[in-house]
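Much of the work behind modern protein science is quiet bookkeeping, done one molecule at a time. The fold becomes a row of whole numbers, each drawn from a learned catalogue of backbone shapes. The protein below has been through that process, and both of its lines are reproduced in full.
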Amino acid sequence: MQVLHLTKKHAYFPEQRRMAESSIAVPFSSQSAIRLAAGCKKLRALRLCLGRNDVAAEGLAELRHFSNLRSLYVSAEPFGLPSQPVPLDLLHLPRGLTSLELRNVDVTTPPAMLAAAADPVLQQAGSVAGAGVRAEQTHAANTATDVLGQLACFRLESCRLRTPQLQALSRGLHNLQQLKLSHVAGVSDEGISSLSRLTGLLELSVLGPHNKALSQNSLAALAPIRGLRYLSWQSDDLTALGPAVAAYSHFTTLRLLSLSCTPATLQYACGAEGQIMFQSMLPYCNLDLIS
């Protein structure tokens, strides 16, 4: 078996006349994770979409045993309960992942450990005599490189990721092509600006409604990303006041631009010729607005 999807869905409770989390428990504990990894050594893609009470932090810490895994999706669904993200250290994930999607997860990896993936001195210190770098730092650097270095697709939804963590990740995700940050607590203009290091990025989606720390101002810093093809953006300033045209002018390679504003808001911000202005500025791009 190379692909496994384990999904828990809503169930209908007739006596209560409502949909709720299925009463069947599917615990993903440390023991069950180790057993599953031992029995599915050839597994290449794993999708875990379970209830918040099913997914244990100890179980996620054992995901590293899936040595051949290339695609991983982890979702701890709250099923109508108050959302409480499950803690996850990214360095406990399998090495060699190319696609990682997380939902309702709290990323707990210290920024210094994430930044180690971009430090060639730490990576080489293990083989250089007298380098003077602690063994644990070298191990962290090698682990971070092995886990994050091959990621081409990274998607977070309803997760927690602090700005220092995002800044550190931007230094180590050398092969990243697709990045989605949807309703991620902790995302800010400062963190988004650091994504300018991801010069190979093809698709970027940032959806941050009701996030006062996020605005279109950070888009100006992403000019070094020359090959961006798809951009989806949602922030309160865009939704309420319309697009700041100058923030998008350097994305000349875009093929699709999705914005969280209506045509009326665009007209309010840019005048009656707003859409024509975008078409002349981004001649190969389709503009997608809220209808």
